[in-house]
Design brief:
This protein is mostly beta strands and about 300 residues long. The chain is built from five helices and 19 strands. Helices cover about 10% and strands about 40% of the residues. It has a seven-stranded antiparallel sheet with strand order 2-16-11-10-9-8-3. It is globular.
Length: about 300
């Protein structure tokens, strides 16, 4: 569901500031699916005993916080988030008005006012594994309120849990997840930008958000979970991802991720075949841990 007048574009302009009108952003989209989405009853986590409020001094402020663990996100890992009062977090490495639409996790994005409610954070343990929880408490828009959570699990699963959201809030909200990384051309003389975008997960706030339930976004097995040559080639053989193992970087990748420049420099384009893994000394396998013009193209 797309919100009239493009709430994403409006938030982009308001949250960080107006961008250069002459800048053109070209986005190439991956055809691969990274997340499976499931609706579940319940899913709310109690955080009141350990939660801490995140301070904000203005409605559109973005507070960067460091995560208690590296969170697997699409084909990358992220260690910090830009938290907003507006029902979403920014996942880019730095704040940029032009990129909010391309890099965010939005359990319920909206233009919530600043005169009520707060945002808290907490780290919980489930069977010894950390869960990081952000909670928007009684945030309001036009006198209608919403209370909901974003839960980040160590294995890359995201949970959007909804406790109390009025239908009036849902009619003006966006629920989505997306990430992208820049393609850098140091020789280019233009200020135009090119980004490669992972699959965007778009959900309907009015149809998919139900009080007392949650949306579970499970990250599919992809190259970043290959911790040595054998597991890397196994993932490449059993998933749509063309995983390759680089002995120099000791990294598994299909080269479609934010570290592609480092891969190109040290690993080239040679693919490691499964039969070649025996020649390498394997490490023990670890546990998987009005803005600019945007043109999109499918790869």
């Amino acid at each position: 569901m797309m919100v009239p007048l493009s709430l994403l574009a409006l938030l982009t302009a308001l949250l960080i500031g107006v961008t250069d009108a002459g800048t053109k952003i070209t986005v190439y989209q991956s055809p691969l699916t990274y997340y499976d989405v499931e609706h579940r009853e319940g899913g709310w986590l109690e955080t009141s005993a350990v939660e801490k409020e995140i301070p904000f001094s203005s409605r559109f402020e973005c507070q960067f916080i460091t995560l208690p663990f590296e969170f697997p996100y699409y084909a990358d890992k992220i260690s910090r988030l830009g938290v907003t009062r507006l029902g979403f977090v920014y996942t880019g490495p730095y704040t940029n008005a032009r990129l909010t639409e391309l890099m965010h996790i939005a359990p319920l994005m909206n233009l919530y006012t600043f005169n009520s409610g707060n945002v808290t954070q907490a780290t919980l343990l489930d069977e010894g594994k950390s869960i990081y929880v952000l909670q928007w408490n009684n945030v309001s828009i036009l006198n209608y309120t919403a209370t909901f959570q974003l839960q980040l699990h160590l294995n890359g699963t995201m949970v959007f849990a909804y406790q109390n959201v009025t239908s009036e809030v849902l009619n003006m909200a966006v629920v989505s997840v997306v990430s992208a990384f820049p393609w850098v051309n140091s020789a280019a003389a233009t200020k135009d930008l090119t980004y490669y975008e992972y699959e965007e997960v778009k959900l309907s706030a009015t149809e998919d958000v139900i009080n007392g339930s949650s949306l579970v976004l499970s990250l599919r097995q992809n190259c970043q979970f290959g911790t040595n040559c054998t597991t890397c080639t196994d993932i490449g053989a059993t998933t749509p991802f063309s995983c390759q193992w680089c002995t120099t970087l000791r990294r598994c990748s299909d080269t479609f991720d934010s570290k592609y420049e480092e891969w190109s420099e040290h690993c080239g384009s040679t693919k490691t075949e499964e039969t070649e893994c025996a020649a390498f000394t394997e490490d023990a396998t670890e546990e998987p841990s009005s803005g600019p013009t945007v043109q999109r193209y499918s790869l």
